Amino acid sequence: PLRVVVLVSGAGSNLQALIDAAAGDGAPFRLLAVGADRDGTLGVERAATAGIPTFVCRVPDYLTRADWDLDLERQISAVDPDLVVSAGFMKVLGPAVLGSHRVVNTHPALLPSFPGAHGVRDAMAHGVRVTGCTCHWVDAGVDTGPIIDQRCVRVEDDDTVESLHERIKVVEREMLVDVVRALAADRSWQGD
Ligand code: GAR
């Protein structure tokens, strides 16, 4: 199976979808560890409940952002994954992590529109009638790497940022599981 590390910052519902998909014999991928950038996340709790090792790397605990990046890379490399999945991880990854790992991210908008930390709010503020989610390879930019998959979601007249984000996340979880399964099935991206 594909060896996967997941990074989270919050609720971890995308992580939970991966945990569920990785459960059982014959699953095409395995979750080796879950990392977070803050304490007390439901995501880390979900991992612990599933018996998956966890670690936390908090930026304020390091002298510099570069030290944080190096330690995060060290924690990830300790379990030797094939793939890192950023699933609601709200920090921009640094050169140490990106230089040693292939990383995919999931984003709650149709990139290249509405990158950044507020994709759902920004799409609504623009008045789009269709939005969605994107899974992409992570490069040094913010939500700029090559797109792997996208799914769309219509905006309803009575949507709030919260209601729209919840509907996006339903589709997003399916997309993310499909993407990780596909990357496990076709390893041509490894060693690129
Ligand atoms: C997801 O919608 C993810 O796309 C978004 O945070 C949510 C995490 O939900 N990420 C970003 O906005 C990154 N810029 P979860 O913690 O329940 O998986």
TrEMBL record:
InterPro entries for this protein: Formyl_transf_N, Formyl_transf_N_sf, GART
Residues annotated as binding N(1)-(5-phospho-beta-D-ribosyl)glycinamide: 12-14
Binding residues for (6R)-10-formyltetrahydrofolate: 65, 105
UniProt keyword Secreted present: no
Residues the UniProt record annotates as site (Raises pKa of active site His): 143
Family: Belongs to the GART family.
Name this polypeptide is given: Phosphoribosylglycinamide formyltransferase
Natural source organism: Fodinibacter luteus
